[in-house]
Amino acid sequence: MGLPEYHMLLRDLEISDPSSKGCKPADLENIFISTNVEDATRGAPSQAQKALNSANLDKALMRFEFLQAIVRLAIAKYLKGGVVHDASEAVEKLLGEDFELLPPEARHDPEEFREARLYRRDTHNAFAAHEKNLRGIFEFYSLGDDQAGATSAGRRLSLQEWECCMTDCHLYDSPHFTRNEAALCFIWSQPFVTDEVKRRLKLTHLTFVDFLEALARACTFKPLPTEAELRECKALTVPHFYQQGGSAMLKGIDWRDEELAERGPLGPSLDKLIDIMTDSLDCNHDGVVTKAELKKSRESGIVAQKQDALAEKLQERKLQDKKLQEQKMQQRTRRLSKEGLLNEDGSLPVSPTKSPTKA
After folding, report:
1. Amino acid 187: pLDDT
2. pLDDT of 356 above 60
3. Which end of the chain, N or C, is less packed with Cβ atoms under 10 Å?
4. Is 56 exposed, middle or buried (0-12, 13-18, 19+ CB in 10 A)?
5. Using an 8 Å Cβ cutoff, are 172 and 182 in contact?
6. Largest separation between any pair of C-alpha atoms in the chain
């Protein structure tokens, strides 16, 4: 967790209070800095310490540092504030009350989806029917720069490689399925590790099974056409539905509802999602995705990514220009208000009316 993300957490927790004893903005900033300090070692550092220092970014919190920051925040708000008299009570109060303010994505439990919809026979059958193509797709994108697959990283899928796969498969569909939602699918499919330094690769990369889980989670974010919508659009297949412009017919779905067992089998949605992927990557449409076709799709995807990056940069520049103009207008309004030329709400002051003089 970097400093910008830490500030987002503080904002969502509504913990900053300039009038408090321990939760002034400067106090909260010091908590991040103090927690992120690496332990000094006497003499030459050991191999374990070198590995920790290498994995531990200078301006970001690892998991154990994040937990320490939570304890420090609890003490700053509740213990120093005199609300409780014990650090454990402060932590319990922060987790039990303040964390309820966080968005649902931050309080998500990955196990609920696995038990409700992933570990089912219909889901297994959907994956088994497309296993050859899915395994080929996973192996191609997981190689990255290590095309020989000689290293462990070359046999696992990183977040960047996952995003490349989503781009080439044309699965992004704003506002229904964005890069942020694809990243959530990746993160929620990561396995739990007890040691985030020694098992760093396992923490940050997906195996083939994890990759399948991430695809299943994508079905809880991306709305897919029903049989009725396919007939209404006169589409023979799901890819044909999108070619016909059918995406305009789709309505957004809530991932929280889609993770419930009441939504029924996940298999039909998975079949449709995999059909979109296969159609995007299978250039000759023979039903078999080859390595040559994947290379061709990746080359096209690189061009598309550059175009998307340029569009995002232009959009960001427009937003920055707009924000700058708004700040200038606010400064001008404050200056004119101070000079008495404008009211605080930006309206013109009303001149006092003179009573008419009698003849």
Report:
1. 95
2. no
3. C
4. middle
5. yes
6. 104
Pick from 287, 291, 265: nearest CA to 277: 287
Report yes or no: 274 and 130 within 8 Å, Cβ to Cβ: yes
Higher pLDDT, 46 or 118: 118
Tell me: pLDDT of 48 over 70. Answer: no
Question: Which residue in 258, 168, 155, 173 sits closest to 216, CA to CA?
Answer: 258
- Tell me the C-alpha to C-alpha distance, in Å, between residue 218 and each of 136, 178, 289: 19, 10, 21
Q: Which residue has the tokens 């396995």?
A: 191
What CA–CA distance (Å, rounded) separates 259 from 268? 15
Cβ count near 327 (within 10 Å): 10
Q: What is the pLDDT of residue 244?
A: 86
Residue 103 CA, chain-centre distance (Å), reads 12
pLDDT digit string, tens, across residues 331-348: 777 777 777 776 656 566
Name the amino acid, one letter, at 128.
A
Domain ranges of the chain: 3-39+52-105, 108-309
Residues 6+ apart with CB under 8 A from 54: none
Q: Which residues contact 175 (CB under 8 A, 6 or more apart)?
A: 252
Q: Are 172 and 199 in contact (CB under 8 A)?
A: no
Terminal CA-to-CA distance of the chain, rounded, Å? 79
Give CA–CA dist 8/3, Å, rounded: 9
pLDDT tens sequence across 285-317: 888 888 888 888 787 766 555 556 666 667 777
Exposed, middle or buried by CB within 10 Å (0-12, 13-18, 19+), for 326? exposed
In 3D space, the residue among 135, 290, 285, 145 whose CA is nearest the CA of residue 215 turns out to be 135
Average pLDDT along the chain: 84
Amino acid at site 145? D
Q: State pLDDT tens for residues 162-204.
A: 999 999 999 998 888 999 999 999 999 998 888 887 788 888 8
